[in-house]
User: Fold this.
Amino acid sequence: MAVDPTLPYDDTNIFARILRGEIPAKRVYEDDFALAFHDIAPRAPVHILVLPKGSYVSWDDFAARGSEAEIAGFVRAVGHVAREQGLVTPGYRLLANIGSDGGQEVAHLHVHLFGGRPLGPMLAG
Ligand code: 5GP
Assistant:
């Protein structure tokens, strides 16, 4: 079901549980501000999710409530993962789905990092 980004953060969501270590994930990077792991249903040869560790539902929620350190840390973590995965030269795509029209399924802000092949048009249809 699509996420309603106007609802308060619900810490039973699946990514909150991964962040707490309650369920496993194929982790590729972690620091004080962010966690990155492979998507369970990859849509590209490389499909990694990068999450801020704080309790934020959406990009606008994070932009409004996140501290300077959290925002800087998250942005740097995304860049770090892209470099570490060897995606900078061939190129890659970042995507954040927000709310119902955005198709967001998990109510904890995350960025999809896709790579490993030419990714085609920006939007289907
Ligand atoms: P959204 O539509 O919210 O941007 O995307 C959620 C993503 O989370 C989907 O690509 C989905 O495959 C992934 N996902 C959902 N549940 C899990 C899980 O338990 N583990 C991992 N690694 N990925 C998940």
Notes: Helices lie at 14-19, 59-65, 68-84, 99-102. The pocket of guanosine-5'-monophosphate is lined by residues 14, 25, 37-41, 97, 103-106 (CB under 6 Å).
